[in-house]
Design brief:
Elements lengths: L10 H8 L4 H6 L16 E5 L9 H13 L8 E6 L4 H11 L6 E6 L19 E5 L20 E7 L4 H4 L7 E6 L13 E3 L6 E6 L9 E4 L6 E8 L4 E4 L7 E8 L8 H7 L5 E5 L7 H7 L13 E6 L4 H9 L6 E6 L22 H5 L3 E7 L3 H13 L5 E6 L5 H12 L9 E6 L4
Parallel strand pairs: 1-2, 2-3, 3-4, 4-5, 5-6, 6-8, 7-9, 8-10, 9-11, 10-12, 12-13, 13-14, 14-15, 15-16, 16-17, 17-18
Helix pairs in contact: 3-4
Length: 445
């Protein structure tokens, strides 16, 4: 006898299956048979997204959510609630939140697109079992007469995008926080400034994504990264004269992405100290975010700057204000086991004059990583200047284990110039018998 074996599974397993579906699809299984009619009502994970209900008649979505929350089985309290809503009223949203917030809630994701700020129930900030809290777009926390007491003893994941209050008021109540994404804006929706003079990240963090756009504030002060267990860092900021970033060493760092820009070189005096603190990372990306001075520009101009010893670095991606062989070779001499190198030249991205590299002349010997470890090299916006050509030849001839060398030709070059570049570089003898030389035309005809 042929049987529907899935329908024979207990409700607990069926609910686990349905929990991976948006709520609209999960509820639709009730029409399959009498066995499935009430299964969805035991769901403890609800993913409600109004983008699945877009139509001319808005009330369909609101009525649907009301029906779900009133018909579900109250014996199975909600543990995970995700709500994406762009047009529902504040009163309705608060009614829905009151229905799901409770002592059993473990994960809460809210993305609200109202034209005005919404004041969340204060009970959210004292959910003792809450492990993950994500507040995105339209959730503004600056409209409380006094910020509520925060006690989230189980919270490990916190995502605030954007934040319009001093985040210290939240972070102080999260004693076991491990993953933090924090985006600070210059102003709130009402146009007032965000005042966050000092931010101290929790020591328990393992992953930090921090975007700070409050650099124009005169009151901006210190960002303290006293996080000895940090493994992942993504930091974006435009530094002002008063901004100071205070750090300790990160011995467990695995991956670091830095997009730090400055209006003037002297604004980034703390940049070398941050790079020193990241010396144990396995992946390092030094990028640019605006037309202002980049992270590497500060290293170019830093007096008496010495690269730290990167004993574990496997991949390096660096955006340079201009090509400089000495800077790159000094960097490579301190990346002892580097396997992959990616460089981008920021041609035409700067509104400021480019400073010359003030570092020392590199040692005459070939960096150990080039002869023994470097397997992949990628060059973006290649123009084939004399220095660039010489550096490519240097890696091709001395890279004894090199497997792939990829050149992205600068888009403004004409076809004849591109042809001559390909021909010239292809004729260079290779130190590695397995090296593949690849050319990518950014603007092919």
């Amino acid at each position: 006898m042929k049987m529907n074996r899935i329908s024979l599974l207990p409700n607990s397993i069926l609910c686990d299956i349905l929990s991976y579906l948006p709520i609209k699809e999960a509820v639709s299984t009730s029409i399959l048979s009498r066995r499935w009619r009430h299964v969805w009502k035991d769901l403890q994970i609800l993913d409600i997204d109004d983008r699945l209900f877009w139509s001319r008649r808005r009330y369909r979505f609101d009525s649907y959510v009301n029906a779900i929350l009133t018909q579900r089985n109250a014996d199975y309290p909600i543990q995970n609630f995700r709500l994406t809503s762009h047009e529902s009223s504040e009163d309705l949203i608060l009614t829905w939140l009151d229905a799901v917030i409770g002592p059993h809630l473990q994960e809460l994701y809210l993305r609200i697109g109202l034209m005005r700020a919404i004041k969340l129930p204060e009970s959210i900030f004292t959910c003792v079992l809450l492990k993950s809290l994500v507040l995105r777009h339209g959730i503004y926390l600056d409209n409380y007469p006094e910020f509520p007491n925060v006690y989230l003893p189980s919270l490990k994941n916190l995502h605030l995008d954007p934040v319009d209050v001093d985040p210290s008021k939240l972070l102080s109540g999260c004693p076991v926080l491990e993953n933090l994404k924090l985006i600070l804006q210059n102003t709130t929706r009402e146009g007032s400034y965000v005042y966050a003079p000092t931010i101290q990240m929790p020591r328990t963090l393992k992953s930090l994504t921090f975007e700070d756009y409050t650099s124009l504030m005169e009151e901006i002060g210190v960002r303290k990264l006293y996080t000895p267990f940090l493994e992942y860092l993504r930091m974006t900021t435009v530094a002002s004269p008063k901004l100071q970033v205070s750090v300790i060493n990160f011995p467990n760092m695995v991956e670091a992405h830095l997009e730090i820009c400055h209006e003037r070189v002297e604004h980034g005096v703390w940049v070398p100290k941050l790079l020193q603190a990241l010396r144990e990372t396995k992946l390092l990306a030094l990028k640019y975010a605006t037309t202002q001075l980049s992270f590497t520009q500060c290293l170019f101009s830093a007096p008496a700057f010495e690269f730290p010893e990167f004993h574990r670095l496997l991949k390096l991606e660096v955006h340079l204000p201009c090509f400089n062989t000495n800077f790159l070779l000094n960097f490579l001499h301190n990346c002892h086991v580097l396997e992959a190198l990616v460089i981008h030249i920021l041609r035409g991205h700067y509104s400021h004059p480019v400073e010359e590299y003030n570092g020392p002349t590199p040692p005459t010997m070939v960096p150990n990583c080039v002869t023994s470890y470097l397997k992949s090299f990628e060059f973006g916006e290649y123009q084939d200047t004399a220095d660039e050509h010489e550096f490519i030849a240097y890696l091709l001839q001395r890279g004894l284990v090199l497997k792939n060398l990829t050149i992205h030709l600068e888009s403004n070059l004409d076809q004849e110039t591109k042809y001559n570049i390909v021909k010239g570089l292809s004729a260079i003898p290779k130190g590695s018998t397995i090296c593949q030389l690849n050319f990518i035309d950014q603007n092919p005809i």
